[in-house]
Amino acid sequence: MPRILISYRHSDSLAIAGRIFDRLAAYYGRESIFQDIENIPFGTHIRKHIETTLQTIDLMLVLIGPGWIGPTPRGEAKIAHANDLVRLEVETALVRGMPVIPLLVDGAKMPASTDLPESLRDFVFLNAPEISSGRDFHSHMDRVIETIERAFPGGSRTRGSLATSINARPRHAAVPRNNEALTAPTGKTVWVYPMGYLGLPVLILLIVHHLIVNSFNLDSGYLRAASFVVPSCFGFLLSWRERTSFRAAVLLGAVVGIVAVTGMTVSESLNSGDPILPSTIYEWRENIEYAVTIGLCFIGAHMVAHVLRARMARTSKLPS
Fold first, then answer.
1. Longest CA pairwise span in the chain (Å)
2. Three-class SS of residue 62?
3. Are residues 8 and 153 in the same domain?
4. For residue 186, which of 155, 141, 120 has the smallest C-alpha distance?
5. Which of 102, 124, 179, 312 sits between 20 and 30 A of 296, alpha carbons compared?
């Protein structure tokens, strides 16, 4: 079984790195997939630590997003620094003759050789498949896994033949989906996805509103509490389980808030006989406050889950 290291820059492609880790871990086992070379002990020679760590690795995947070279506020690239960890990881792998697969994330292009230090000039000529975080993610990862499988028949391929096999792989060759069990847990269709994270919280909020306001005429504080808890739970799950982007969370949060408050207004109107549209400034303000609260809780919980995943990724380490 190959031992695979995912090399990436946190500020560039942290979210999709987590998805790639989960997909490869589901296929090869979590003990075979590693993220980051971090937690380097104080006083330890960084390059020697990386060299020692890479002795246990068979293959390196390098995730290249739009900011992979690491631009700094002063205009220089982080990868130009001799002590940049991403640079050291890739340099060490190339020097050791380890097979390296660059993965172009979300439409990123391979950097120009002039943008890289001399030690990485040949890196730009490696064949690099594209990986999208959208609906094509699984088909793109199928191609990567198939390439690794061709290089590791039975897990016995040597490093030299592995490098040859990977570099000879056609960039856009089709790969059959031969692992249905792998895609089953996360293979949600484009229609099931919004129903789970949009329809369910709206439905729950409408039921809670009906019980609190129409059926039992309880204090409105209970409804406000539900407007915090329900969207927060679904926003957290959206980020934690689906690894969606912040833009998607903002869109879904806004839609959940607007649809839920609209449904509450219609439900209350049908029960009381009052007009559907609010008739006073106070009613308009209250409706807007509920919609904004629901949307912000959804988005905020999504961000909390993203931060927690980032912390977990930073604390994960390779066995020495």
1. 78
2. strand
3. yes
4. 141
5. 312
